[in-house]
Task: structure prediction
Amino acid sequence: MSLQRTAYYLRTLFRNIASVKGLAALLSSFGALWLCVEIASYFFKGTMLQSVIESLWWLFFIVGVAIAIWIARPTLLVAARLKDRDVHIEIAIGDVFSFDGSIVVGSNSTFDTRISRELISEKSVQGQFTSRYYGGELQLDAELNTALNGHPHEDLNGNRVGKAKRYPLGTVVRLNPKGRTGYFVAIAHINEHGVASGTLDALKDCLAELWLFVGQRGMKEPLVVPILGTGFTRLAPSRQVIVHEIIKSFVAACSERTFCDKLTIVIAESDAIKHKISLETLGEYLNHVCSYTEFSNNSNE
Result:
């Protein structure tokens, strides 16, 4: 478990213990243990074993607290199987790079690569992808240019902080540095000052293009997706809403074909804490969608 994930786990655990959930867990564990003690005392009444049981009150307390802590432990992952499909969807708290599978990287429509305060943040998924799997942004830039060769684009005029070739939103390219696949998808336009902006409707269209691309050119590998558009793209909807849209879009794409066996939507620990994201609530939504989505029998898998 990473340091950030451990910090999130402990912080959430202490918060749960100090909440009504923690009190309920403690009372529940003590109640169950007391019932066991009463039953044992009834059957062994008047024997030496009863005296032993009554003298172990400290063990009763320790076991009760341990059970309460276990009940109140944070949820780090929820999962569901898509009805009538051999596809699993997960929502997890953690570092997107710690999960197995191909990573979806949200980029801008000019596919800028320069790591700087004006363009691509080193803390963004693209910035981290660059530092982990490339010798530098120039290497990434070269591979992106090769992958984008032949894609339609428009040339932008005037002085700009970034590149001058703009591709349609939803443009996707597949890169394979150091044995790790990354799907770069254009989800927002960027202005001459390097400021990205997008909309929820545009993100929905981009997700549809992403699933189509993966279905046509992917290798049916597991997919790992961060909460796209909530960072430097500056989408207004909450992270919960974006997770809902990713789930709905993916499930809709699975009606046509099964293009991967598992999708993992990853929420960063910092986002989960800062925005008080409830994984249990998202899990209920995920289970509902996976259980009640109906597919036609003539879909082409």
